[in-house]
Amino acid sequence: MNHPTTTRTRWLAGTAALGIGALLLAGCGRSDEPTSPSAEAGAGIDDSPATGEIDVWAMGNEGEVLDELAAQFEDANPDATINVTAVPWDGAHDRIATAIAGGQTPDVTMLGTTWVGEFAPTGAFEPTPEGVVDTSSFFEGSQGTTVVDGVSYGVPWYVDTRVLYYRTDMAEAAGLDAPATWDDLTAFAEGMRAEGAASGLSLPPGGPDSSLYLLPFVWQAGGDVLTEDGSAFAFDTDAWKTAFEYYNSFFTSGLSENVRLETGEIEQKFIAGDVGAFYSGPFHVSLLKDQGGKDFEDKFAVAMVPGDQTRTSFTGGGNLAVFGDTDNRDTAWKFVRWLSQPETQVEWYGISTDLPSVESAFEDPVFADDPYTSVFGEQLSDAKAPPAIPTWAQISAIIDQEIEQVTRGDKSVDDALASIQQQAEAIGTGS
Questions:
Q1: What is d(CA 43, CA 73) in angstroms, rounded to the nearest whole number?
Q2: What kind and span of H or E run contains 81?
Q3: SS3 label, residue 7
Q4: Out of 19, 182, 215, 404, which residue is the most buried by the measure of CB atoms under 10 Å away?
Q5: Structural domain containing residue 345
Q6: Whether the Cβ atoms of residue 109 and residue 323 lie closer than 8 Å to each other
Q7: Contact 213, 278 (CB under 8 A)
Q8: Is residue 14 part of a domain?
Q9: How far apart are CA 212 and CA 190, in angstroms?
């Protein structure tokens, strides 16, 4: 790998607009002393102890606490050194793009799951070598986030999915159980409203990432972003119309307020009873416990998302990829393999609260005996990610805009879907 002789730094951006500062920082402190040549790409990895240094980029909280876990790997491999650089999410995408363009990449990097489809076609990542990790051990939806054109690049490191948070006390007062179907969900939202909630079910009425709330409804109705063979967009379909109209029905009926609630707002409204239910990931469990206090812990629960043909939810998280021009391929893949072990992922949850990507890890009592994390584990067995195409960020931004126009009453669902289809076809899949 090329690395600089100077210093050591989640969705769509081009490399042309990036500043030179990111390029100069991209090397992340790689040693100027060459290591032994990497084995041929695609070769297997043996079980001997790892040796030498590797540089790893990790974003956000993961980057701040990965050193603690990496130290355990170093204890088990005394001749190996893991240099972790914490990279803020803001700007991380551009930094990786710049590093690839300049040939100054680390050995391993964490990736937002939606970035794989954009970066993999550059040829920067080594495809996951056969036998290095058991790809069948991961949740199917999560493993799918590493695959581009039938080839897996790296591994899903930790996962995120969305479930339904709801007020158990309000549901009990309304005589309702957790909803399982769309009809149940409508009745549930009506019951929450009857108990005083301004939003029986809080949904984003547009804006950034609203598409990730609408997409599960599409999947549940049997639709998808692309046709089955992946050759064309499939927005002008009955499944999309059914899902979009159902989503919008919560706004036209007044079961969802036409107000976008961000993290920091929705917790307080949920605790106050102004919101009866909402969709979110595992991080909200601790937020609600902390902000609601001990007396509130018995007033909320989580459940799998209600569905139509299926109960499919959205899955995201973080992946790990190894750069093809790493100077220490052996240790890079050994570290990734170790991070993919069930026992390591349980340990990582204790450090980071990130959910395991390996399905068997949820058999550990830490997850199996917990009323919250056990539901997330169940939901991950029916969860999907957006398609791994380079243009997804552009397409999703269009969907976000069209959702807002529909929920405001400025456009019909039919017109919105026709607009999405037309614009998506003009942009293309990028592949």
A1: 22
A2: strand 80-87
A3: coil
A4: 215
A5: 25-160+315-381
A6: yes
A7: no
A8: no
A9: 24
Count other C-beta atoms under 10 Å from residue 271's C-beta: 18
Give the pLDDT confidence of 30-69 residue by residue, as tens digits: 433 333 334 466 677 899 999 999 999 999 999 999 999 9
CATH code for the domain of 133: 3.40.190.10
Low-confidence ranges of the chain (pLDDT < 50): 1-39
Whether residue 240 sits in one domain with residue 211? yes
- Give Cβ neighbours of residue 202 (< 8 Å, ≥ 6 apart): 256, 257, 261, 266, 269, 270, 275, 277, 278
Q: Look-up: residue for tokens 């897996």? A: 152
The model's pTM is: 0.87
At residue 264's C-alpha, the angle toward residues 259 and 266, to 5°, is 45
Rounded Cα–Cα distance for residues 135 and 150 (Å): 13
**108 and 70, same domain (yes or no):** yes
Last residue of a domain, one of 365, 381, 397: 381
| Contact in structure between 286 and 77 (CB atoms under 8 Å) | no
Domain count, the chain: 2
- Give the contacts of 344 (CB within 8 A, at least 6 positions apart): 69, 338
**pLDDT on residue 52:** 98
For the chain, how big is the Rg over CA atoms in Å? 22
Using DSSP, state whether 44 is helix, strand or coil: coil
| Pair 174, 191: CB distance under 8 Å | yes
Q: Which of 253, 250, 283 is nearest to 266 (CA)?
A: 283
Distance (Å, whole) CA 317 – CA 357:
9
Give per-residue pLDDT as tens, 170-229. Answer: 999 999 999 999 999 999 999 999 999 999 999 999 999 999 999 999 999 999 999 999
150's tokens? 């039938």
- 147 and 198 inside one domain: no
Q: Residue 303: beta bridge partners?
A: 164
**Residue 417, burial from CB neighbour count under 10 angstroms (0-12, 13-18, 19+):** buried
